[in-house]
Amino acid sequence: MAILVSVLLVGVMLSIVFALSAIFIPKIRASSETKNSVPAIYAAESALEWCLYVNQVGDIDAPVMDMVGLEYDVDCEVSPVKATGMYRGVSRVFQID
After folding, report:
1. pTM value surpassing 0.90
2. Facing residues of 86 across strands?
3. In Å, what is the CA distance from 32 to each residue of 16, 25, 37, 39, 59?
């Protein structure tokens, strides 16, 4: 009888742990993506500002990202202009017409 009660108690405790893990693990991932989102937004915005400057004023060197892993992708020749900033697997996009 004591073994049955202890097995049931362990089963209940494991189900509670798995339920809480299912709730909190996505929230932890989202918070780490938020931390990586700010540099991605910076890269996309910098690339978009550079593209606007090139189209309105003239040619200038492309922006240099000094953080390791910070990249951007932009094509100034098409409309709408779409700039994508990427950092540690997080991408953020800005687009203007």
Report:
1. no
2. 71, 91
3. 25, 11, 9, 12, 37
Starting at the edge strand that comes first in sequence, how are the strands of the sheet with 71-74 ordered?
71-74, 81-87, 90-96
Which residues, other chains included, contact 64 with Cβ-Cβ below 8 Å and sequence gap of 6+? none
Q: Name the DSSP letter for residue 85.
A: E
* pLDDT at res. 28: 84
Residue whose token pair is 């017409």: 97
**Interval 49-93: pLDDT, tens:** 999 898 888 888 888 888 888 999 998 888 889 999 999 889 999
Tell me which DSSP letter residue 61 carries.
Answer: P
Task: Calculate Rg over the CA atoms of the chain.
Answer: 24
